[in-house]
Amino acid sequence: MIRLEQVSKIYKTSARPALDDVTVDMDRGEFVFLIGPSGSGKSTFLRLLLREEVPSKGKLYVNNFDITRMARRRVPRLRQSIGCVFQDFRLLVNKTVAENVAFALEVIGKPPHTIKKVVPEVLELVGLDGKAGRMPHELSGGEQQRVAIARAFVNRPLVLLADEPTGNLDPDTSQDIMLLLERINRTGTTVLMATHDHSIVDSMRRRVVELAFGRVIRDDARGVYGVGR
Ligand SMILES: Nc1ncnc2c1ncn2[C@@H]1O[C@H](COP(=O)(O)OP(=O)(O)OP(=O)(O)O)[C@@H](O)[C@H]1O
What we know:
Layout: E1 2-9, E2 19-26, E3 31-35, H1 42-49, E4 57-62, E5 65-66, H2 75-80, E6 82-86, H3 97-106, H4 112-125, H5 141-153, E7 159-163, H6 171-186, E8 190-194, H7 198-204, E9 207-212, E10 215-220
Parallel strand pairs: 3-8, 3-9, 6-7, 7-8
Antiparallel strand pairs: 1-2, 1-4, 4-5, 9-10
Adenosine-5'-triphosphate binds next to helix 1.
């Protein structure tokens, strides 16, 4: 599903590599935490998968796309196969909950009758039925993140990337969001989540890939956050 072979990323303005000779494989249906201190390369890792950056060295595959050699015109197809969720939700503030989710389908050309059917289904899945007509500012942070997850998942992506999805949420709400991500993972979607949240990583006991200075220093099948520290 996701494969990095000896990938390095060196930004022009930076003295040391942001990623340094990283080799990792993630299978279909895995749930993986990507952890490491600030500046260790987590966001760079995610940006490479979306082809927002290109690697300086190595090979990179996502959902059978060879990202290293990918022509620019094929990038939208790659991004359609990946759902993304961020710490700051990134909803369209002037659209309702349902319109935010529908928009993700409109931009990829889904017909209106499909959109009409699928949007309520996914809102129910994330626990937001009854709130379809609300504006984002009328929702709590946890609810806004649910909308973002619905939007990311509505197209049934093979991979869901989550960059600090609980970073702006209190612990209870964070737990709810994690239950939702687990539920999405159980449908077969690979979930890769970058996080600083010790308690979530420790309570879920999933695969943990730890970065330090751009290198993978740990890859545990059922890991915790702070081993050896
Ligand atoms: N666009 C860029 N240009 C130059 N250097 C960059 C760029 N983006 C990131 N870096 C550098 O690459 C390294 C890794 O950064 P990255 O943002 O991937 O880390 P991170 O683990 O996501 O950090 P955080 O947890 O704070 O988001 C850092 O040294 C950072 O300064």
